Amino acid sequence: MRNFDYAVASRVEDAVVADGANTMPIAGGTELLNWFRLGIAAADRVIDIGRIDGLSSIETEADRLTVGALATLNEIGEHRSVREHALALSQACLAAASPQVRNRATLGGNVLQKTRCAYFRAEAPLPWGCNKRVPGSGCAARDGLNERHAIFGWTDACVATQPSDPVVALAALDATVEIHGRDGRRTLPVADLHLTQEEAASEGLDAACSETRLRPGDIIVAYHVPIRRGLRSAYIKVRERASYEYALVSAAVAVTLDGGRISQIVIMLGSVAQKPWRLTAAEQKLVGQAPTRDVVLACLGESLKEARPLAHNGYKIAMAAGAAARAIATAVGDVR
Amino acid sequence: MHVSPADGKAPHRVQFRINGRQISAELEARVTLLDFLRDRLHLTGTKKGCNEGACGTCTVLVDGKRMNSCLTLAVQCAGRDITTIEGVALSGDLHPVQEAFISHDAFQCGYCTPGQVVSAIACIAEGHATDANSVREWMSGNICRCSAYPQITAAVLDAAQKMGG
Amino acid sequence: MSIGQPTVRIEGRSKVTGSALYAADRYPDGVLHAAIVGSPVAAGRISAIDTTRGRAIPGVLRILTHADMPRLGAIKMPAAITHMPLQTDEIQWEGQAIALVVAETIEAAEEAVPLVKATIASAPALVPGKGRLEAAPEGGPFMAKGTTGDPARSFAAAARRIEQTYLQPTRNHNPMETSACVAHWQGDELTLWDSTQFSLNPVEVMSMAFGIPKEKVRIIAPHTGGGFGSKGFVWPHEVLAAQVARMMSRPVRLHLTRSQMYSMVGHQPECRQTVTLGATSDGQLTAMRHDAINTTSIADTHFEAPATATRTYYASPAIDITQQIERVNLVQPTPMRAPIEGPGGWALESAMDELAIELGIDPLDLRLRNFADKEPFDGKPWSSNRLREAYAEAAEVFGWRRRHEMSKQDGIWTLGRGMSMASTFCARFPSAARVRVQRDGTVVVEGSSNDIGTGNQTAIVLTAAEALGIDPELVSFRWGDTNFPPAGPVYGSSHTMGMGSATRRAALDARRKLAAHGAPMEGPLDLVALMQKADVDEITGVGKFDFPDGARASFNGSGTAYAMQTWGANFVEIGVDRDLGVLRLRRVVARYSAGRIVNPLTARSQMIGGIIWEWGKATIEASIVEPRHCRFLAKNLSNVAVPVNADIPHDAIDVGFVDEFDPHASDIGAKGIGELGATGIAAAIANAVYDAIGIRVREVPILPQHILQGLGARIPSG
Description:
The complex is a heterotrimer. By secondary structure, chain A is an alpha+beta fold. Chain A contains twelve helices and twelve strands.
């Protein structure tokens, strides 16, 4: 990689100069260094935000859990309060990457990781079209080897997925993300942080390159997870080897039961779109029902029939059904 | 700090403790901890396997926590305590993990072994060596292509028990 | 400690402390760093290479292209690739080296690489499946084409017949150490610290390439970080490093990136195999046919020979083998653990299971019924074969005959059981050793042996100790340097036979010299007393294991009255998660007939390693070729998976050996085991999947999507 300037930020305010192109923030560095090595990014200046005080704590209040953006995935995954009030988040954090990566990867950085699409992740110079890497060059995955790509929200410009595990759990738990920007602080639902390609296109943005609602200079500082009595949650990650691998498909579920019937439920799928994908229609069907296997699968079908598979990833529909059903069963305690 | 005329990116003067010794160096920001340890200090026990954080052969301890040194800039480690495989058994006796690896035949070619040992020491300290399933999961960040996995797991469990971990 | 007793590795301390030195751990004074620029296309001609921007990077000294490189002498095997990069403007595979950056630091070299711009007139590339088919080459150790009996008639006479096609994709070795070398010329003498499985191979190739006598080439390679075949032959980067070191008059290190392990060294090629089996209704094979195709590069021929399995596996009166190669624009393939019967066993042991099911016969009984008590093609007796005992013991321990009483479900896991035969070729190569008895009663054994983790050093120490009748603690071994006597390769499961025999002969030679001072030729020796009597500093014995008429190798007993092969019995239990499609390995029982086991501790580890390799092949691994660009889609470890610890049960792989001594394969009764464990297991797994869910998968890896598709899983309707 090219050399760059390096400075350590002591306050968040110092970090907003990072424009995400010539000046990039670095925390754990578990993504950024690979971006530099592959030619995905090339900054002149790197600002280390990893030493900013006050951004790594995990605090519990009566009605919410606050996780600092610099908390590492291991810290979050093993935290007693997270396990108690946001089990899916704990499980998602601990299902990510490897123990070594999790000691450095932060929750702030993890949700901003880029797609694992193999066409995107090739070393520069790219021999094929990739609208994320070279705007306007095309999308080699669209009609290529797209086994691991999106079944929702894609356009012909890009069929990539967002691979983060924690973001799926955060979305299912109705978490919000607190952002410090050049204009001050604001908060967004985590479920709205990312954009699918379709959403970007419908807002007149570059479908391939517009991945989040962050603006230049924005730094994620914290996540807030509501604490709800009686809420049960679970995260299921499907992959061909048992650890240290990205998901083929994942599912996060947050559910409350009343007398054995579902009173509230949120189902989010991961690695099927460029954002956590909510199964709203399935949720609506499930409310008021006892979550038996047949009922659950039938209700999931209501959402999954909207899937738009590519040539090679139709299996993700059945896999998503299996993952979501497993997550529900795990959350309500029916799986040993 | 002076500006190097060659490319305008000022080199950084960094201090750390490596295996208990104070080390001071002048480095470009882009130098990874891995390349610094190997190419500059010739501490070649830590290995380069993939240079993308996907294999764990470059595992070192930074302030006692295991991480991939290929994914860490040396300058980010300023002021930190770094332990490499060379620092695991400074007195000349082997660490219980090292002894267990030998007795359980937990290595073959030996290339992933420094990373496995350092990772195992941390795994035990973290409290993740309580049972075989936990060891298998928490040691999965170290790939062994010689596939000594069952022996590695046995070694970590044995060492943990001997260490009271 | 003695032969047959579990003995910890003598080099263990150096490995667990990180003091064992691998090629890239060498930093001679003044060393430069080289980095390779690879071709972005799979076929074509370079018309120009612009190195201006790369050369401007501070610290970069030179960027070399084919325009700069001196002509090399013609190279051939043991160089894997004759189309040497940077010798012509022709590109034959994506990633082929087209330029070499030489710099003072690795950062500078790597920064320059993407700045080197080649202008290439691309040509259409041949992709796997659409390459140029040719008959497999004849005259090598593995049968390209052959027939015994009358297959046509025997198939016609069969009561039942199955014919199926089995596929396996290209897979990469991905040893943990990426290939590396450091080249240093002193005058006209070359020292190469190299990552290799056989130091004599780079000696030979450097001699060819630079036109220098072999005595002027020294290879220092005490530790190689895994090979599995990828470091057996000599690859272009080794020659390039030596070339550049000579041109720069400074030592040069070249450490391949992980990505370059897909383009600068070989892989196990894609294999497409069709197996046809005919049998009587009670399971006697009447005829076997095995057709196989493997891909190879444009300029060089790698013949994987999977159908050779059908030559040796079963007693069939009629056998027909045809094999082909398909030329494609990828880097040259090379043997990979396990070669030949690895792919061949995947197909044949799946087919045998399908035949057993078709006939309603227990798959184990089908194997037993067709047990080959001599070599099926030429009728030679086996040098040793206790496969039947292996089947019996493994089946008993596994509970094979009671499997129908076992539970079919464990929580979310649907269970299945399958079996197969393991079997692989027996390769033997010449080796030489020196045994130096010291005045103080200790012994030093010397040989150029390489170390990829097989435990050969410990086996050699045990062998010398046994031959001399002394405690192995008194014996040390110096290896990994071609200044020592020339040992054979560490590939083909051959080293223990060759170097073990050479070591024994050298020890006996020393013993004969000690006889002059009263040493008996058998039984324990008191070396301290004997050396005191001899009153010399050292008595040296030399020993050579080689073949009549100077043959370079003996495969499967060639040149002897015997056929040589090794065998095993594999029994596996797997779990299928029907909702997610995921497979998990639950337990394995394997017993092997593989000659005398010198060190049970390291032998056990070898077999477990082989089994895990087959798990990877069966369920995880594939190096997918992007067909529109004729290159590997992903060239790393993040998008290409190999097994991790969590995939493997820690206490449920039970391996063992039946007691055996083969007096024909080697002086010490041993045969080879390194690859045997990696044969047949993939088929046993597919057979177990069939047992679990009634789906026959004929293509590996068996991924979750294949299970879900096979189960006909579809979107549930509301």
